[in-house]
Model the fold of this input.
Amino acid sequence: MSGTSDESLDARFTGEIPEIYERLLVPMIFHAAALRLAGAVGARTPHDVLETAAGTGVLTRELVPSCPGASITATDLNQPMLDTAARTIDDERVRWQQADALDLPFDDDSFDVVVCQFGAMFFPDRVQGYREARRVLKPGGAFLFNVWDKVENNEVPQIITAALIEAAPENPLSFLSRTPYGYHDPALIRADLERAGLADVTVTPVDGISRSTVSEAVIAYCQGTPLRGEIEAHPTFNVATATAIAEAALLRHFGPGPIEARIRSFEVVASPASA
Ligand SMILES: C[S@@+](CC[C@H](N)C(=O)[O-])C[C@H]1O[C@@H](n2cnc3c(N)ncnc32)[C@H](O)[C@@H]1O
Done:
């Protein structure tokens, strides 16, 4: 398949995206995962937590009660995501800082836990991102993160992706399958972590259900993610026409009214390998 996609846009969460992401996508697919991951972080009773790719703060909000007394440094590449996050939390234990997970502005051995919810898929060099997590972890610390499974195991983005590709196969809109749902091989994840000096890797599949309406789901994915930028750069579609194509496909599949859809992810834990 040829395409017109510009992969440098894949990590661009700016413009109208942060507000739509926070309002529609967070309750639909991110909140349940955040509760789970925050519980796993809290079980380690950390003093200093670094969150990378914190986005609009769904996990940060859950880390506050799960990690009583801990200092939480929440970072993201895109300042507009953090601006949206900061409007939702007012807690002196949380510090917001713009930072690229591949080049962290923190000293070695600074944190008990590094945690990253659904961010690693966006890293242009995942081994470098993992190396940075390892560098800033204290000895005995832990790196926890999650990634989505392949798009075929995530019902709504699969239907949207198939509909948009069918409508313009010569210029496939493949952001969803390429990036957020494009890093899901447990063997590759394990190998990338080990190349970065991390060990004791566990990869656990997590199945769930997302709940929304068709119109919420279609606006969430087509307008509240970087798929929006890929659509805006497309030679045939604009945001309205692509949204309408995806909406028609979801309505054919689910019918009108509330929808429940399959979602699947992997939760990963790793620790610095001993020297
Ligand atoms: C799918 S969102 C996840 C946000 C949040 N953790 C959540 O669960 O809702 C992916 C996030 O990764 C961030 N991101 C992308 N590349 C990054 C990088 N190199 N370093 C730090 N953050 C990055 C984006 O800005 C975006 O906020």
